[in-house]
């Protein structure tokens, strides 16, 4: 066998542009020159990517990273990866060509695919749900690079990547999945592994070495073997035989190239380079053998694969097969069941897709009340078969991942699926429509009378001989008018004369004839020089002579070629069973059947006939030489050998027929074995005459037997006619009975359905019952129990039927058996509260078990209710009630609890101590007998109002004291207590003795009135005093001013005339007069402040007013060299301008006046708004004050530093101004350090 090799060059072209740009595109690179690795990752994937590229060497491989990225933030993944890779890292761009030795990173907010070696980007927009970017890229990678696609799935949540894995494996590529144990999030790796298609499960660090081993062949080239060499072919046959014997699965008729390629991949995965080593590994490792078989059985499918094809199926085929009517060999023309066969169903998606189309058709066409339950079913059977038992298990479970949302419409998901976790489960109504079964198309017989056979994307993996055999089976299984549905890459040319094309594009065919025989019962002669291949029907393939090993066949073929012979094996009817060698020189070049004499030319046909008769008769071989055959190659003579092969009489007869050529007629004397045309013709004719004579004698004997049989038949026919009449009568009775049975059956079906629903309800009730139940019979034997009951009673399924007293419990219930017996005997239920050994409390209720037809108890049902929370809550309520009662008894007030209508439920001891009356003597809250007669009507009126409105009851009244009969004032407040519905359930009141308080309040009120009168008198006195001071200061100013003027004139007139002593006295008089004027001015100012307390306020520009004050103080400021620090945040203030000027002037002048001579004076003035109010702060570093001096600081005429002139009324005036305007002034001081005044102005400021 010649080994076929394909050479693919890996020579790189030198870059011509972008030498400094690692992502520059090499315009001379031939597309698809290298393998491309698609890496999919999500959560936790970045660390795995780093580890992967930390161990990735440069080489002739391209890498594309598809990491789930946030669409709202620019990704820095490429920048971060550059620290972990020796390869060039590029952010992918649209139409960017993929080159070896580079890494391409998907940008955020984009889908990426690859086509013709270029990356294509599309924007993510208008899409809800998860973006399956990994699936999108890997699927396109598989379609573009086929076997050079390598998929890598790293850490991530969800299911993205599973569909891409399937696509890569279908295309012949390689898949590597991160070991879930090394992944931060195992969702994506687990889902990829669940497909069963991973070639390797590795840590990220080990993946690059596996990839290099997979793609590496030699430094400069890659040899891709498409067919095995002789040694590998031998090992391949041995591998297939090993698999056939041990699993057993037979892949011998699969395409050799496909099988060889998949074996090579498994060898690469196992690190084995020689097929012999791999064969030895398989012999010792059953797990690897199963993995190889799984690799052969790639179950790649999807829902509604090729949607347009399924649309054609839905439109053209489903209505046709559902509307047909078939007689089905019965008097009634009822339609036979519609049969659909999905061959090679894999994990079931295609079968369920067809079932959905059928269900949707039934929904549209059947009446609203039509269903299998009401007797109007549309009988449909869908058979789904496959060789892969693991795939069938998945199909039968009917659970699929969440990404089927991309294949199945939302309407179909809601109609046919149930949400389960992150995936979907097929609804039972759809699941019951499909029957899954194991079936080998190459060995097992087909299903018969099928209306639709779907066999998609299966035949492409098989060799032509097996394809033709399967096509014959499919044709045999189809009903006349039935449909065949193939994959897009498949065709049914071998059956073209028996099928009509419904859709050439989507490969849908219809059977046009009514033949049900195996189609492959004819052969066609080959062209001259070709081997004659005679195919044998599949039903004969199981006979001993055709079950030969490949090695035996190879030896036989070699021997035939070595001796220049050709031949066939025929049965006793001279029909060809098997052929070998070059037969074209001996057979006629036309289409014929399997009868060998009709295949041979004359005189070979006559000679073979005579030789065959002789060989069969004598049981020995017959050789005839020297047969002149003009059709032989180059002319010449032929030797014919006919030999019986069957020695066992129990085996069917087989003849071996061999042909060989002699170029010249043999010389010498001829023997009986030499060909004599006349003699062989005579023998042939003699044999025919003998056969004719035997046939004539047999015919005469048969004629006589037939005459005798005819007489018997006439008699028998009369008996049959009589029996037929009886059968007709019986048939009518049976028909009537059958109708009655159908009616009864329908009733039984209805009952069964009701019982099934009731059983489902009961099972669901048991499953949902969290407390537990036991069922016992009259003999106290256990009949049934709910799952939750095992926590109370130690039970297993084996305890069914055991007596109740044999069982041990986890609850403290010693009387359980007696209570159950009592309920069975008397029928009265028993309820008890018991505690379990774990401390929880249960209410155990035992009731009788009654049957519908018998009112007497036939057993009992024990139900456990967990009341732990109820018991604990009740205890808490009891404890709380006790605590509340203690509190109520300890209260000094009288406490009363009453029912909603006012009837008293409870008095505390304080009521009895005060009134000496029992609750029976005071039945109603609103009409206490101890009430003062004058208060009774008022209290009753208010109580009735509260009862009617449900509002607060509050009243002050006098109660008679039981000891001395004195009445004392009390205050009662009563509030209603309501339940969850808002209904009043109780009134609670407290009554407090307020007699002493009331007396005290009356005294306080009297004192308050007296104080008001006194204050009014004082205010009038103050006003009179202020008026007097103002008038006096005004009246005194005029004479004193005159006196001062006279003194000035006197001083000026006597200048130089007075002695020194007299001058001093005159100066002292002038000084005294000036001080007296100052005092009068101060008194005037004080009076003005008091009189102007209500002066109208105006908006004042604070900075302007401050500038005026500083101008007035300019001389002392300059003299003292004081430093002023001003911080003005608030510019305006609503205030009397004169009063604000006085505040500023006094505070600033005092800060300069009372400075310390040890340091330069500093004054800090701040004006700002705090909490919505203006605040003025003036701080100095002057003399400061002692703590005891602060309390008297704002007193009139109070001065603490006599070395400085002053009157002691400035701060008093500031305090009066601030107080009169609703503000306050604060002062802090430290002796020797300084003083700080803070003025908080009133709230009436502009917003």
Which descriptors would you attach to this protein?
single chain; 1247 residues; alpha+beta; Rossmann fold; Chemotaxis Receptor Methyltransferase Cher, domain 1; 8 domains; seven-stranded parallel sheet; seven-stranded mixed sheet; 31 helices; 44 strands; 40% helix; elongated
What does this entry look like structurally?
This protein has 1247 residues and is of the alpha+beta class. It folds into eight domains: 9-226, Methylesterase CheB, C-terminal domain (Rossmann fold); 229-298, Chemotaxis Receptor Methyltransferase Cher, domain 1 (Orthogonal Bundle); 307-511, 3-Layer(aba) Sandwich (Rossmann fold); 538-675, PAS domain (Beta-Lactamase); 766-868, 2-Layer Sandwich (Beta-Lactamase); 891-993, Beta-Lactamase (2-Layer Sandwich), CATH 3.30.450.20; 1006-1069, no CATH class; 1096-1240, Heat Shock Protein 90 (2-Layer Sandwich), CATH 3.30.565.10. It contains 31 helices and 44 strands. Strand 21 (499-503) and strand 22 form a beta hairpin. Helix 3 runs parallel beside helix 4, helix 7 packs parallel to helix 9 and helix 29 packs antiparallel against helix 31 (1210-1220). The longest helix has 92 residues, at 677-768. Mean pLDDT is 79; it is low at 1-20, 27-31, 217-224, 325-334, 371-377, 517-549 and 667-672.
């Amino acid at each position: 066998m010649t080994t076929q090799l394909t050479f693919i060059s890996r020579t790189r072209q030198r870059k011509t542009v972008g030498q400094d740009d690692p992502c520059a595109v090499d315009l001379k690179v031939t597309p698809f020159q290298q393998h491309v690795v698609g890496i999919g990752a999500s959560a936790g994937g970045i660390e795995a990517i780093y580890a992967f590229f930390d161990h990735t060497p440069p080489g002739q491989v391209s890498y594309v990273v598809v990491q789930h990225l946030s669409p709202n933030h620019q990704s820095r993944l490429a920048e971060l990866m550059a620290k972990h890779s020796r390869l060039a890292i590029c952010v992918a761009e649209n139409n960017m060509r993929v080159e070896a030795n580079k890494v391409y990173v998907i940008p955020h907010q984009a889908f990426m695919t690859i086509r013709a070696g270029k990356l294509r980007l599309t924007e993510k927009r208008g899409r809800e749900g998860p973006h399956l970017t990994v699936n999108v890229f890997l699927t396109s990678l598989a379609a573009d690079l086929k076997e050079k696609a390598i998929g890598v799935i790293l850490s991530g949540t969800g299911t993205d990547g599973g569909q891409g894995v399937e696509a890569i494996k279908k295309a012949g590529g390689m898949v590597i999945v991160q070991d879930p144990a090394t992944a931060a999030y195992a969702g994506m790796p687990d889902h990829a592994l669940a497909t069963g298609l991973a070639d390797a499960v590795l840590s990220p660090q080990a993946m690059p070495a596996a990839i290099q081993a997979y793609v590496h062949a030699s430094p400069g080239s890659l040899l891709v073997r498409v067919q095995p060499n002789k040694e590998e072919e031998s090992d391949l046959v041995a591998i297939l035989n090993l698999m056939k014997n041990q699993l057993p699965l037979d892949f011998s008729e699969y395409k050799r190239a496909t099988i060889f390629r998949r074996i090579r991949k498994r060898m690469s995965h196992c690190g084995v380079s020689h097929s012999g080593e791999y064969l030895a590994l398989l012999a010792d490792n059953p797990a690897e053998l199963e993995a190889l078989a799984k690799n052969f059985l790639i179950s790649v499918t999807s829902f509604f694969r090729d949607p347009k094809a399924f649309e054609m199926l839905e439109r053209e085929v489903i209505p046709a097969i559902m509307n047909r009517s078939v007689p089905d060999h019965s008097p009634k023309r009822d339609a036979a069941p519609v049969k659909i066969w999905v061959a090679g169903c894999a994990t079931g998606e295609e079968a369920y897709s067809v079932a959905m189309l059928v269900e949707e058709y039934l929904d549209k066409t059947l009446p609203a009340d039509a269903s299998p339950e009401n007797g109007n079913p549309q009988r449909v059977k869908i058979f789904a078969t496959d060789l892969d038992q693991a795939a069938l298990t998945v199909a039968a479970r009917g659970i699929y991942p969440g990404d089927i949302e991309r294949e199945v419409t939302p309407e179909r998901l809601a109609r046919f699926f149930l949400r389960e976790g992150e995936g979907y489960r097929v609804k039972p109504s759809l699941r019951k429509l499909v029957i899954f079964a194991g079936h080998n198309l190459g060995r097992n017989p087909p299903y018969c009378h099928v209306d639709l056979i779907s066999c998609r994307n299966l035949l492409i993996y098989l060799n032509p001989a097996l394809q033709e055999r399967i096509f014959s089976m499919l044709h045999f299984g189809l009903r006349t008018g039935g449909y065949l549905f193939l994959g897009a890459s498949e065709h049914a040319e071998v059956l073209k004369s028996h099928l009509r094309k419904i859709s050439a594009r989507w490969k849908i065919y219809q059977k046009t004839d009514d033949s049900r025989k195996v189609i492959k019962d004819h052969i066609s002669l080959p062209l001259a020089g070709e081997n004659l291949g005679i195919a044998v029907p599949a039903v004969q393939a199981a006979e001993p002579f055709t079950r030969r090993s490949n090695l035996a066949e190879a030896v036989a073929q070699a021997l035939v070629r070595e001796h220049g012979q050709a031949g066939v094996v025929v049965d006793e009817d001279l029909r060809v069973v098997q052929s070998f060698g070059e037969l074209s020189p001996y057979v006629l070049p036309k289409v014929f059947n399997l009868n060998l004499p009709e295949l041979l030319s004359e005189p070979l046909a006559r000679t073979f006939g005579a030789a065959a008769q002789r060989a069969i008769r004598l049981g020995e071989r017959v050789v005839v030489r020297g047969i002149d055959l003009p059709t032989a190659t180059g002319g010449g003579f032929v030797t014919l050998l006919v030999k019986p092969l069957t020695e066992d009489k129990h085996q069917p007869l087989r003849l071996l027929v061999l042909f060989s050529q002699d170029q010249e007629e043999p010389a010498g004397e001829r023997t009986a074995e030499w060909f004599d045309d006349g003699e062989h013709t005579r023998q042939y004719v003699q044999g025919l005459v003998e056969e004719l004579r035997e046939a004539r004698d047999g015919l005469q004997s048969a004629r006589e037997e037939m005459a005798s049989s005819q007489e018997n038949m006439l008699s028998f026919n009369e008996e049959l006619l009589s029996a037929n009449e009886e059968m007709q009568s019986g048939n009518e009775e049976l028909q009537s009975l059958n109708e009655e049975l159908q009616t009864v059956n329908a009733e039984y079906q209805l009952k069964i359905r009701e019982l099934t629903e009731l059983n489902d309800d009961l099972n669901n009730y048991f499953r949902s019952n969290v407390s537990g139940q036991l069922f016992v019979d009259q003999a106290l034997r256990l009949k049934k129990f709910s799952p939750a009951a095992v926590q109370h009673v130690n039970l297993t399924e084996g305890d069914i039927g055991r007596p109740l007293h044999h069982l041990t419990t986890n609850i403290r219930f010693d009387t359980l058996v007696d209570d159950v017996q009592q309920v069975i005997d008397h029928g009265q239920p028993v309820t008890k509260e018991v505690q379990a050994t774990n401390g929880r409390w249960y209410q155990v209720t035992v009731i009788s078990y009654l049957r519908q037809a018998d009112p007497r108890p036939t057993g009992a049902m024990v139900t456990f209710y967990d009341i732990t929370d109820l018991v604990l809550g009740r205890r808490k309520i009891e404890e709380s009630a006790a605590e509340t009662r203690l509190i109520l008894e300890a209260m000094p007030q009288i406490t009363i609890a009453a029912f909603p209508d006012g009837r008293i439920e409870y008095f505390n001891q304080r009521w009895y101590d005060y009134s000496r009356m029992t609750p029976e003597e005071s039945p109603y809250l609103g009409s206490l007998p101890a009430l003062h007669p004058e208060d009774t009507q008022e209290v009753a009126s208010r109580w009735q109002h509260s009862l009617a409105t449900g509002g607060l009851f509050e009243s002050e009244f006098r109660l008679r004291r039981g000891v001395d009969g004195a009445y004392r004032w009390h205050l009662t407040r009563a509030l209603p207590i309501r339940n969850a519905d808002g209904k009043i359930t109780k009134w609670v009141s407290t009554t407090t003795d307020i007699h002493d308080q009331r007396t005290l309040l009356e005294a306080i009120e009297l004192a308050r009135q007296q104080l008001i009168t006194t204050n009014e008198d004082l205010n009038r006195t103050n006003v009179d005093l202020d008026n007097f001071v103002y008038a006096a200061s005004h009246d005194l100013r005029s004479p004193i001013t005159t006196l001062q003027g006279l003194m000035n004139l006197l001083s000026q007139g006597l200048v130089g005339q007075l002695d020194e002593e007299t001058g001093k006295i005159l100066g002292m008089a002038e000084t005294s007069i000036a001080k007296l004027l100052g005092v009068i001015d101060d008194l005037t100012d004080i009076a003005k402040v008091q009189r102007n307390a209500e002066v109208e306020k105006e908006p004042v520009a604070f900075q302007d007013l401050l500038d005026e004050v500083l101008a007035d103080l300019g001389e002392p400021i300059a003299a003292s060299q004081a430093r002023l620090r001003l911080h003005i945040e608030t510019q305006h203030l609503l205030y009397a301008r004169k009063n604000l000027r006085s505040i500023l002037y006094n505070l600033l002048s005092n800060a300069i006046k009372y400075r310390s001579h040890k340091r330069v004076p500093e004054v800090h003035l701040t004006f700002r708004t705090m909490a919505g109010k203006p605040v003025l702060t003036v701080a100095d570093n002057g003399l400061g004050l002692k703590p005891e001096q602060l309390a008297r600081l704002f007193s009139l005429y109070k001065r603490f530093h006599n070395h400085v002139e002053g009157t002691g009324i400035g701060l008093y005036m500031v305090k009066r101004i601030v107080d009169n305007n609703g503000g306050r002034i604060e002062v802090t001081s430290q002796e020797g350090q300084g003083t700080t005044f803070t003025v908080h102005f009133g709230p009436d400021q502009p917003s």
